[in-house]
Amino acid sequence: xxxxxxxxxxxxxxxxxxxxxxxxxxxxxxxxxxxxxxCDPCGTEEAMVDFFAKIGADAPPEWRQRERAFKLKLGVxxxx
Length: 80
Known about the structure:
Elements: E1 13-14, E2 21-22, E3 27-29, E4 37-39, H1 40-55, H2 61-74
Antiparallel strand pairs: 1-2, 3-4
């Protein structure tokens, strides 16, 4: 007996924050505007950037660079 397996169609979505790819629903909602879907690692990175700011520490430079670039894409002011 043979069983044919038909793989489900997978939609790969580009992450607007890092330009990597993710497969919904494995994604996060950006904290910067509350509606943009981003990949899980970027969601974690945003949370860590917020945590570093809360404790008065500097986030790594590459995180801050991605943060600034993403806020520019979204049209979010730097202080928000």
